[in-house]
Amino acid sequence: MSEPITLAAHPDIRFRLLQPSDEDACTVAVSMAFTNGEPMTKHMGVSAEEFTVFCRPYVKKAITDGLSLLAEHIPTGKIYSCLICEDLFGAEPEGVEIADSLKPVLAAVVESSTPYRAKLEPQEGVYAHWFLGATLPEAAGSGLSTTLRYVTAAYQQKCLGFKHALSEATNPATIHINGKKLGFDLINKLDYATFKHEGQLPFQPLTGHIGLLQGRLDKIATKGAEKFLELKNYI
Fold first, then answer.
1. With 0-12 CB in 10 A as exposed, 13-18 as middle and 19+ as buried, what is 205?
2. Residue 22 burial by CB count (10 A; 0-12/13-18/19+): exposed, middle or buried?
3. Radius of gyration (Cα) for the chain, nearest Å?
4. pTM above 0.85, yes or no
């Protein structure tokens, strides 16, 4: 993606790749989204500072890798939504620090996807891992998060050659967007209440589940082009 994309459906928004200058804004947005709205993170009392320390290396690497897009409000320059992606079989970022309160959350995410990942051929450039995302409250309900995913799918499939996207959706909103709207297949479910970590049930009071979702990027991109004519250039 050499140039940002604008869509008639969101005339005040430009969709573009993450740049080094976006590191702080994207890191803060993701941290606030997870500590305020993701059920397991919120239940464990993970602070915004702790989550910021964890996710910053992923944002840094996302900028370098060039798989991740954001939605920027043109009048203000504010980042309204971002989707942090990585190659599923690429190298992990350096310098990741995980607070004790966050370890059960990440362990659950890993457990939800490990059996399926083990069946895949570990080849880079095939599976895009849609790992972390955030949409600011002022953009909630606008459909921006869904649109960003359509644009991301078109870019990753057409420009980078990826075939599939994999997502461990940890809250109902993401399950709805990726599953119901974009058409991802549900590969696995891990219930919060029954997950065990170090002999404990850390999320027992919670209801709901992690949904491991996989989507074919060509199908998602084609569906996006049917909704947004501007994306036809990517199909």
1. exposed
2. buried
3. 17
4. yes
